UniProtKB/TrEMBL annotation:
It holds the Pfam family Clr2_transil. InterPro entries: Clr2, Clr2_N. Residues 186-205 have a biased composition (Basic and acidic residues). One of its GO terms (biological process) is silent mating-type cassette heterochromatin formation. Signal peptide: none annotated. This is Cryptic loci regulator 2 N-terminal domain-containing protein. Residues 77-142 form the Cryptic loci regulator 2 N-terminal domain. GO terms for cellular component: mating-type region heterochromatin; rDNA heterochromatin; SHREC complex. Residues 163-206 are annotated as: Disordered.
Length: 575
């Protein structure tokens, strides 16, 4: 099977790790009579899914859907099989001509999709719950709209690319079209390098046309679920009317699907402690539904760290949605199976921070897997919930606030998974008699700086002091040391470093006083700036818990550069 040399995908080589599955839901299937009744009696032969022509179709359609989802398409995606009731058939011809005309039946009657691109638009509508729920008007395929495929291509592919190209040569000298997520890289290379060749929409033509920049012009549909809104002038009148008609139901619980990630506002689980307080925007997963169309939400699972708690829909005051693609939903979720379930009283000890959701990174890194982004944000938020109140939370104060202990960095706290710079070096820990218990022999000098990965922050049961547990790391160069000059006793400075864990795996993590933290090197959003003050121990009336960090706000890049600068100084005596 021919492949255009410019096209980056090996579309006829399925990868099991890059497989998409159509949802097996009522109403998503096709019309089996269109396949069974006509079948071989009408001169058609059904193709097996592993036939090269079927693999080609499945690869084209799968990559089309993946691009729409914003996934990386530098390598092809394949659909596992056709939706229920759909099947690919080949037209039987006489022996003088090969059987090359393949068609996909299942739409109904004798209607058929003649090319993978014709079906790709319909496939996205079947695959994406948001589009499918908007009704037939949302589907842009040729059989639903009645328009020729050439007109559809012009509107959604070629015309858009010409407009994008003309914008790029405008006065501003740059592309003014909103950019999609990480999945556009392969398609853009196909445009820049290969152009649009061949001119045929037949399934056996070389695939040098860009797959689709559909996500650029279609993601506005997600505005109904709180997603990104792109330029409104891309909205066709028919589709705009469909979305307008279906916009209201998206705000109701009945439109949430099983295993969909949602953010909910709920009453306190232990109301006799928290009174009338409302816990706002707790991450949760829709747990189950009442059978029927549309699906009716009945319960959600409030997410904690390694735990969850089921609440009924009637306890939820408000909802926000963050949909997940199907290919991610089919993976095992951390809160399902084998995880211990805490009581409502235990879960009630923590709640979301006032600043609610983290802002999404914009633009996304090109290699970022957009499929796991919403759930990773939820788990990070759940970690914040868990560390917002420790197990030794105080009772409600007279002013209505809750006293609790913790290490503050700006408006938030040191939390699980944070990378911190430790004040003591190895020599400092040895002077306390601690190093032999959990630090093996180190190849570095005793003055080499140490870093900790926070595992726990809480009170010491014996003396009430605030302490933390951490895995201890030191920075090592990627390459070995060398001495280019015999008169120089220092090696060359390395190009980069890696973190090497120096705590032994067989020993428990050290339990250290909170004052051992000098600063925070956060790998996500902000870091604590090293300063002479570092962490201040203030009076008991200053802040709950009496601990406050100073000079805390830096960017991630500056923090990592600071860590490397310290390593250069301690490793090599270089600034």
């Amino acid at each position: 099977m021919r492949q255009a040399k410019h096209f980056p995908l090996a579309i006829d080589l399925p990868d099991p790790a890059r497989t998409l599955y159509f949802p097996n839901l009522p109403g998503r299937g096709g019309a089996p009579d269109a396949v069974l009744d006509y079948g071989d009696h009408e001169g058609y032969k059904r193709l097996d899914d592993n036939d090269p022509r079927a693999v080609y179709w499945r690869g084209f359609v799968g990559t089309f859907i993946a691009e729409h989802l914003g996934l990386d398409i530098d390598k092809a995606w394949h659909i596992s099989t056709w939706p229920e009731g759909y099947a690919l058939w080949v037209k039987e011809r006489n022996s003088s001509k090969p059987q090359i005309d393949s068609y996909l039946f299942g739409f109904g009657g004798r209607k058929r999709f003649r090319t993978p691109r014709e079906f790709a638009f319909h496939a996205v509508w079947l695959y994406d719950d948001n589009y499918f729920a908007a009704g037939d008007e949302a589907c842009q395929c040729t059989l639903h709209t009645g328009r020729p495929q050439e007109m559809i291509n012009e509107e959604w592919i070629y015309g858009h690319e010409r407009r994008r190209s003309s914008n790029s040569h405008g006065a501003a000298g740059r592309d003014q079209t909103p950019q999609a997520g990480g999945g556009d890289g392969g398609a853009e290379r196909g445009i820049r390098e290969g152009g649009i060749e061949g001119g045929s929409d037949d399934e056996h033509s070389p695939i040098v046309q860009p797959f689709i920049h559909w996500s650029r012009s279609k993601k506005y549909l997600l505005e109904a679920t709180g997603g990104p809104t792109l330029n409104p002038q891309w909205r066709p009148p028919l589709l705009a009317a469909a979305i307008q008609n279906h916009q209201a139901p998206w705000a109701t619980p009945s439109r949430h699907r099983p295993l969909e990630l949602v953010w909910v506002s709920v009453d306190p689980l232990d109301s006799w402690i928290r009174g009338e307080e409302t816990i706002r925007w707790w991450p949760a997963l829709v747990h189950s539904k009442v059978p029927g169309q549309p699906p009716q939400t009945s319960k959600v699972a409030l997410l904690g760290v390694n735990t969850h708690y089921i609440v009924n829909e009637t306890r939820i005051h408000a909802w926000k949605t963050q949909p997940l693609p199907h290919n991610f939903l089919q993976r095992p979720l951390p809160w399902l199976g084998g995880q211990r379930m805490r009581s409502a009283e235990a879960l009630n000890r923590f709640r979301p921070l006032p600043d609610c959701l983290d802002p999404l990174p914009d633009p996304f890194p090109r290699q970022y897997d957009l499929a796991i982004l919403p759930y990773s944000i939820a788990l990070r938020q759940a970690a914040r919930i868990e560390t917002q109140y420790n197990p030794f939370e105080l009772v409600q104060q007279a002013d209505g606030s809750f006293g609790y202990h913790g290490l503050y960095y700006g408006p938030e706290r040191i939390q699980l998974g944070d990378l911190v710079r430790l004040r003591p070096n190895r020599q400092g820990f040895e002077s306390r008699g601690l190093a032999r218990r959990w630090l093996p022999a180190s190849i570095g000098a005793n003055s080499r700086p140490l870093f900790g990965l926070i595992l726990h922050v809480g009170e010491n049961e014996r003396d009430g002091d605030l302490r933390f547990k951490a895995r201890i790391f030191e920075l090592q160069p990627f390459r070995g040391s060398n001495h280019p000059n015999g008169n120089d006793n220092l090696p060359d400075a390395p190009d980069g470093f890696r973190f090497r864990e120096v705590t032994t795996s067989m020993s428990p993590a050290p339990n250290l006083p909170i004052e051992d933290i000098a600063c925070r090197y956060d790998q996500d959003d902000a870091v604590l700036a090293p300063s002479s003050g570092g962490v201040e121990v203030t009076g008991p009336d200053a802040t709950p818990g009496g601990i406050q960090a100073t000079n805390w706000y830096r960017s991630r890049e500056e923090g990592i550069r600071g860590a490397h600068s310290e390593a250069l100084e301690f490793f090599y005596g270089a600034n």
